[in-house]
Amino acid sequence: MSIPGQEKQWDKEEKEHRKYNDVRIFDDNQLNNYTEDELKNYKCKHDISQLEQLESGPWPSFVSDLKREAVHRHKVGQDNLMIPADIVDDLLGIVELSYKERETHWKHGGIVGVLGYGGGIVGRYNDQQAKFPNIAHFHTIRVAQPGAKFYTTDYLRAFSDIAEYRGSGLTNLHGSTGDMVILGSFSEQLEPLFFDLTHDLGVDLGGSGGNLRTPSDCIGKARCEFACYDTMALCYDLTMTYQDELHRPAFPYKFKFKFDGCPNCCIASIARADMSYIGTWKDDIRINQDAVQEYAAGKIPPDGGGFAGRDWGKFDIQAEVINLCPTQCMKWDGKKISINNAECNRCMHCIDVMPEALRVGKDQGLSILFGAKAPILEGAQMSCMTIPFMYANAPYTSIKGVVTKVFDWWTEEGKNRERVGETIQRVSLKKFCEVLGIPPMPQMVTAPRANPYVFFKEEEVPGGFARDIDDYRSRHPR
Amino acid sequence: MSKGKLGYFNPQKPQENRITDIGPCHYGQMLPPVIRRNYGKWASHRILEPGLLVHVSETGEKAFTVRAAAARIMSVEHIREICDIADKHCNGYVRFTTRNNIEFITDSEEKAKALKKELDSRKHVGGSFKFPTGGTGMGMTNIVHTQGWIHCHTPATDASGPVKAVADVLFDEFKNMRLPAKLRIALACCLNMCGAVHCSDIALLGYHRKPPAIDHEVLGKVCEIPLVVASCPLYAIKPITTEDGKKSVSVNIEKCMYCGNCYTMCLALPLSDGPGDGVAILAGGKVSNRLSPPKFSKVIVPILPNNTPRWPEVTDVVKKMVEIWAKEANKYERLGDWAERIGWERFFEKMGLPFTHHLVDDYRLAVDTFRTSTQFKFTEHAWAVSKAVGGI
Ligand code: HEM
Ligand code: HEM
Ligand code: SF4
Ligand code: SF4
Ligand code: SF4
Ligand code: SF4
Description:
Shape of chain B: globular
Bound molecules: protoporphyrin IX containing FE, iron/sulfur cluster
Distance between the termini of chain B: 81 Å
Low-confidence stretches of chain A: 1-15
Structural class of chain B: alpha+beta
Mean pLDDT of chain B: 95
Number of helices of chain B: 12
Structural class of chain A: alpha+beta
Oligomer: heterodimer
């Protein structure tokens, strides 16, 4: 198998989850039950004239899509649905009302959920229940997505049936955190829905509330040559290890893991994960000098061809790679590229430009950064470089050791609704280093502090903090 | 197959047959064969045309990926159509990207091209494309966003609507690869920022502009007053007893920044207000470490109205910004890198945007953004200051 020591069970090349036909709810007639004309002639029972203006234009229109679901539900009929057949019509109606008034009509979520879990379902009620009874409840269910959001159609079809039968038939693919989100269920359907998901799809809810949120990962080794560790394997392993933390809120606030295979950060872990795992390497960038020649000769386009839509002139290695390298650690003598790898900060630029000539190093692992969050409350933060390099090999004992230290400390130390980045800010990075048992390093800061208000530890000061005024006075009379 | 009101669930014995803590499905079940065979062996990639990628493995095998846009809110009918296409062309496999695009992976260029053609040919009866291909290389990819008026309680704007409006205006940038660098746009409909909009080239942010209305009738009954008081980051909330003797709170209007934290704690403090709410525009952020470190987006327009259904004021600013950046930036220069090189004063001048008091930070750590150097460029903004003090 591809990665030594990480042989996969799926070498068997067979789909192991259940086939759609074993678990389907609707038959083919029910699925193909309307014509294009019926779609064209659909008239929503509410005025939706503003929304209909969002049907034109090239970008895929969510309004057109919603209408399609409305038509389909009508034709399937209420007898074959556990959620109002008219739910999408009422949703269109209420959103139109918001377009007119420019205010939302969704009330605060109430506490809803399934037995034994503290998260995964967000309650949603409407404040116009008399006029729009079919959306009185519109709860959202977060369903754990598979790694890098790869699916079989069997799985997606089965998911769709459940989402239509016990939900509104509308979903988010995917929610911002990464979950598959089923929209528009009613309170009494939540347990049955949960049973369907676990029994028929073999999948669990995602996280919400003060717990570990559903971790998410970039495509990594599955289809990216830049990946420095197996993002999907690590994401899956940690997700399974911390199921309890994910389902039963015990944290001061949310906690997110995100896994980027390299510093390009496609999953944006550095901006939105409390604990960002970002792939990196510690040996040399691999250089194929023959391919460099081909780039120089204009035979291979820069950035894989990503600039092809405009004439940028002839590709110029000196100007576009060597001179732009932020650490100025590269040289080009017209024949060969050389890199002073010790000075490279692995920004990815040269590799992004010439992926066929330059490759990430072979001695690969990951960096761990902590503390990213959106502005609420103390202002936005990005994750802080904390652990420069760790190998990421199953069973990930050392990585889990770090996670455990952070969870234990933050659960104790964090205030209600305080993200770990804010806790670190409040108690200091110094204290956080002590918690992790790591020495500080210059890589944690952009520069050393400019103010000299240094707190010393008592043991660092000769004689400690205890003062003796008499001793002082013996040298300095009043 | 589970049917009927209760399905597999037995309310008399709710613990019976309950399965918990099983996590997501293992990704191994979901990978197309060409991906399984070459897992961890990828050597390089190319973008053959907008929306079509080829990844080359050390084994010599190639995976062809066709990328298509999608609206994030998606009906199961749409998902089933995606499945039909994936069954026909990709042996029943499909994936989604972080930014809500759909990716179809095949093992031959021929199949990929046929697939791409089919995707581009499918349209909604309303006229829009169902699966426009693109979103690769130096162009705009899908706009990530939150939920807005469709199903959230705190939005100051809609999400799907403004995103559709902006994406329509920038559609050519999704279909082409002619920008100086990648363009990443995001929208969040309130300060909570469910999407990571704060590090995007262009971020649209719903913003409330009025303090909460206070429902004294019920506040004391439905909310824990100490929690409400503690929820306000600016200490603007105080407990009071109303004239008719009800326990409630007051909000110090001077201090309130309309963040809605109090509403999150207490439904008797609603925030949204049609004419008051609107959209702020932020620019110049990024998450990639390429060339320059990741950076936050900066507020460049404090508020624009929620002019439904197409937010013309917002799309105008966004379109203009992309056009000017595309024309003036160097190759490889993200929007924020460009703005920093020419200076934000020059950015505002080129954009023809007013620089108002809203744009100068006055929150915590504001001093970090003060310019403490004599290095600046002269623009009309500078002359206005000189004139104001009689200097010229
Ligand atoms: C009770 C409070 C909160 C709830 C219920 C909540 C809920 C959520 C939900 C539902 C998501 C997206 C999940 C998904 O779509 O799969 C999310 C993402 C996010 N939340 Fe929160 N959130 C809360 C508080 C906060 C706070 C206080 C912050 C910032 C300080 C924050 C920042 C974010 C960010 C940045 C994301 C997007 C990250 C991403 O795209 O993965 N949230 N949150
Ligand atoms: C008790 C307070 C809160 C409640 C009850 C609440 C409720 C919700 C609900 C119901 C959703 C999902 C909406 C839907 O899918 O229909 C949601 C989404 C979200 N909320 Fe909250 N929220 C709260 C506070 C917050 C706060 C304080 C933040 C951030 C600071 C936040 C951030 C988010 C995010 C990031 C999402 C995800 C949106 C997405 O995936 O598009 N929420 N919240
Ligand atoms: S983060 Fe890096 S490894 Fe992951 S998909 Fe993006 S470029 Fe590839
Ligand atoms: S990765 Fe970045 S820093 Fe390193 S050699 Fe390439 S361009 Fe220079
Ligand atoms: S950004 Fe705000 S309004 Fe929008 S979905 Fe998130 S919490 Fe709701
Ligand atoms: S909106 Fe925010 S700042 Fe204003 S009172 Fe509520 S919590 Fe405080």
